[in-house]
Specification:
By secondary structure, the chain is mainly α. The protein has 2 domains: about 90 residues, Orthogonal Bundle (Rna Polymerase Sigma Factor, Chain: A), CATH 1.10.1740.10; about 80 residues, Arc Repressor Mutant, subunit A (Orthogonal Bundle). Helix 5 crosses helix 8 and helix 7 packs across helix 8.
Length: about 180
Amino acid sequence: MKEMDDRQLVQECLKGSKNAFEQLVDKYNKVIFNLAYRMTGKTDDAEDITQKAFIKAYEKLESYNPKFEFYSWLYRIAVNESLNFLKAKRKYKELDPDMITGEKNPEECCLDNELGLRVQAAIMELDPRYRILVLLNHFQSCSYKEISHTLNIPEKTVKSRLFTARKLLKEIIIQKETI
């Protein structure tokens, strides 16, 4: 059986196929959870946000425009859910050290661990509108254009805010070193 692409799966969902939506959830669950976890730093909160994002996507599926990537549309929903959660919570917590990932061997990970922890802590101190840009660009490898589409902001704004976010990260890390 030929695997359907996202647009075909959405069409099947709109026709009433629950299996098609399950396939979309299976395909994007990890990515959406990862975003939510990096935004909140807590597994339970990330699971809640992930679930809300998929529920909202299912409820609003008829508003999906197939000329755009389904992934970007879903990711935008997850970003909005994460930001709404953070606004409601109004406090930010540091990420767990276990969240640092990479392709390095254990020895290299140990050497980079301290810097990684400082960077993760600094990311959590950023305003959410800057944090999401750093996560999308540096952790999800999204291009400026993809980020622009996902967040529904001009590409020049993405570049400007990313520049500011990197500058703020540097200041936060330097300030922590002098304390």
